[in-house]
Amino acid sequence: MQFYLNGFRPGDPEIAQAGPYAHPQSESTPPQEVDVLIVGCGPAGLLLAAQLSAFPDIRTAIVERKNGPLELGQADGIACRTVETLEAFGLSAQLLREAYWVNETVFWRPSEEHPGHIRRSGRVADTEPGLSEFPHVIVNQARVHSYLLDRMTKSANRLTPTYGYEVTGLEVTGSGDHPVHVTLEPSADNSGGGGPVNIRARYVVGCDGARSTVRRAIGRQLAGDSANQVWGVMDVLADTSFPDIRNKAVIQSATDGNIVLIPREGGYLFRLYIELHELEAGQRVVASDISLDILVEKAQRIFFPYTLDVREVAWWSVYEIGQRLTDSFDDDDAQGAPRVFIAGDACHTHSPKAGQGMNVSMQDTYNLGWKLAAVLRGQADPGLLTTYTAERQRVAQELIDFDREWATIVSAPARSERNPDGVDPEVVQRYFVDQGRYTAGLGTQYLPSAITAQATHQQAAVGFPIGRRFHSAPVTRIADARPMELGHVAKADGRWRVYLFGETLDVRDPRSELAALCDYLETDPASPIRRFTDPLDDVDALFDVRGIVRTLDPELTIDGLPQLLRPRKGYHSLVDYEKAFRPAAHVDIFAERAIASTGAIVIVRPDQYVAQVLPLSARREVGDFFAGFMIPRR
């Protein structure tokens, strides 16, 4: 963490200096004119608010129809990719301290020797080794909300939600700088009174759930169907003889259905997803008259011969499996750049058993947030915003397809003589292993576009596939010999990362391509740094260039590096000593990520996805890539 760049300031360095749009805590209604209005304080809305609140020059407001923050949430699974994302917000340490770590998944099936009993049939690592430096973890959704809310209040905008208001009208007028006109009215949950509020916004993002008012206002619909399968879910404190109660487990019984067991944070609580029954055609789950006692009794029968004595139920619900998706995630019908967007459950819904809902929803707005910031700050053309639907709708369709298949498998009875059409327990386990990269949140690969290049030079860095998230690896910082993860230098600040991996030639050699590239990026008028960075800003205000050299020579110190890797910045023109790295003592990043001996340029988007891979000699191609969507400043 870096601070004091522009002078010493006492107090908590996590608290940013207040900007011109800092939101007074006493305001009970949002401003009448904003750059971005976010509707909904779910995980998608709060992650977007946390991201935008970091920009002092962007005026953001977020409203929620409920009367206060979430206290007990439904979602709880945090995929590896989501932990990586929260690291960019400075929130991973607290999450990892509180959360349950999912290390193994065990599988249970009907016992052949003892009918009516279950037995353990398999055990696998929950996440394939090496997929991420972070684990898959479990923590209540309300805690994730509180992390993001805290981040917002410490930001330059001191952003806090306006609770107790809902959208009752939305119109895109097509004129003026703030063409989206929104009417808010006190919701049924509002205990403070008040009247209608009219807001003018440049952009609106609806994160207001499956019954989204914003989605309806732009004429989008959720389309899909239900599987007519009912499941119950409950978070319980219980006394049990089941030996794997602190492991994630998939349990198939012979005649009573299946359970997915998820241990929860804190060491005692656990969640049970319990298969109940099929619905008749046209029947709704609300009419099926299912009680908590039915869930408990059903779970006890599935666990037999193990006992389950439920002492307390923190939360429970019943739901039917269904998958639905909208045809677009914005209001653009090829008439120009979009102005209104939807994210999360507002545009895709599915069953909760795969643990993907909260994760995919937050990735939706992580994808959108930096694009909105780039357009609002004049760094990129508004056409950039069309890539949101193009990228995220495809991801949502993949989620729907996966959820439909996984829900079918986990809802099916175990194959036996009595159920010859059931699913073999080995098939369940194999499918879980095969889909491990996807459930870890690491299956996304964006297709070529203005911001994701063709894989023409992929061989320069095979381990950083274009379109996939930047896969971190251990390195050592040259200035202070600190071991760290290279990917953790990327923060949710809207900047592009440009990682320069050196060739075998020493960077101090006059023939070094790495040194020559650094000189070009810093001084040449055709360099993207020179073309697109405001002359009044620091050299790394838009492009955060990092160098990784191959040598382990301890004699290479900061003064032997190119000037771009030790830039002067800030009010006092201080040197940034944290731009350059060498391989870690125990892991060679060049070997781990298959970097060519001639070195590589790896360009990474602000949402941590690899956008381009080039050889060190491809200087013109670097500038050409950014010229495709950025607005020149010089």
Polypeptide structure, described:
With 634 residues, the chain is an alpha+beta fold. The strands form 5 sheets. It has an 8-stranded mixed β-sheet, with helices on both faces. Strands 1, 2, 8, 9, 10, 11 and 17 form a 7-stranded mixed β-sheet that branches. The protein has a 7-stranded mixed β-sheet with strand order 20-19-25-22-21-26-27, with helices on one face. Helix 1 runs parallel beside helix 4 (141-153), helix 1 packs parallel to helix 7 and helix 7 (357-376) runs antiparallel to helix 8. The longest helix is centred in the middle third of the chain and has 25 residues, at 387-411. The model has no long low-confidence stretch (mean pLDDT 92).
In summary, what is this structure?
The protein is of the alpha+beta class and 634 residues long. It has 14 helices and 27 strands. A hairpin with a 6-residue loop joins strand 14 (258-263) and strand 15 (270-278).
Topology:
Elements: E1 33-39, H1 43-52, E2 60-64, E3 77-78, H2 80-88, H3 92-98, E4 100-102, E5 104-110, E6 118-125, E7 136-138, H4 141-153, E8 162-163, E9 165-172, E10 180-186, E11 197-206, H5 213-217, E12 223-240, E13 248-252, E14 258-263, E15 270-278, H6 292-303, E16 308-325, E17 340-342, E18 348-349, H7 357-376, H8 387-411, H9 425-434, H10 436-439, E19 474-477, E20 483-485, E21 496-501, H11 513-523, H12 528-532, E22 543-548, E23 568-569, E24 574-575, E25 580-583, H13 589-592, E26 600-604, E27 610-614, H14 619-627
